[in-house]
Amino acid sequence: MSDIPFVQVDAFTNRAFGGNPAAVIVTETACDARWMQSVAQEMNLSETAFLHPVPDGFNLRWFTPTTEVDLCGHATLASAHALWEAGHLPKQSVARFHTRSGTLGAKLGGDWIWLDFPATPVTLTASPPQLTDAFGSENVYIGETKFDYLVELPTEAHVRHFAPDFAAIASLPARGLIVTAEAKDFDFVSRYFAPAYGIPEDPVTGSAHCALGPYWQSKLGREQLTAFQASRRGGVVRVQVIGARVELGGQAVTVAEGKLRV
User: Fold this and answer.
1) Cα–Cα distance between 50 and 5 in angstroms, integer?
2) Which domains are assigned to the chain?
3) Is position 47 annotated as part of the catalytic site?
């Protein structure tokens, strides 16, 4: 039996028990995918991140309690925070992650961590029956991205008070559902649901902002945006659209450290 250290980090927040929690596990070499999935199920967080060093950075994989995913913002932010905090990487260095979505970067800018992610633009689409039933004529726009459906609602209140039908959302031919609206104290608000991936409502979803950033940039005419994901825990995401890339800014707090006995 050996001990493998892990940390739990709350991402996209500057306070403990806010934002989105992720477990981060750094190992010396690659791990078996079945073992990683079992650990993620045991952690029972929206994401568990697994890293190991490679010559020019770190290999990074993300697992929900039920499946491996192609892109995750909050667990990448948590991973960068954990690497710098534990001294695996000097704080002045850019963290480079090799992932299923290509090479991603993270850098420190004051108290904020900035992620370099690919944009996942939204295209107009016909409404699936599940969304027609859920929103009827209330929606302003229905589109789809590489991963998700996106629905713009008339007001911030519609987003905050939306009562999801998880069974209907789980039956969508997509990873999940983003609902969003222009906001009073932020440029926009959103919520994100992925019950088919074991995440009924995600507290703060970095990868969703790879779509939300370009969408709201085109509507509001601003390349720098500040967003709030209006889940129960809540979290702030700064978004900057740069061509085919999106920079996501967030903060992070370590809330727990431990060891896996395996």
Assistant:
1) 11
2) 3-116+249-261 (3.10.310.10), 123-243 (3.10.310.10)
3) yes
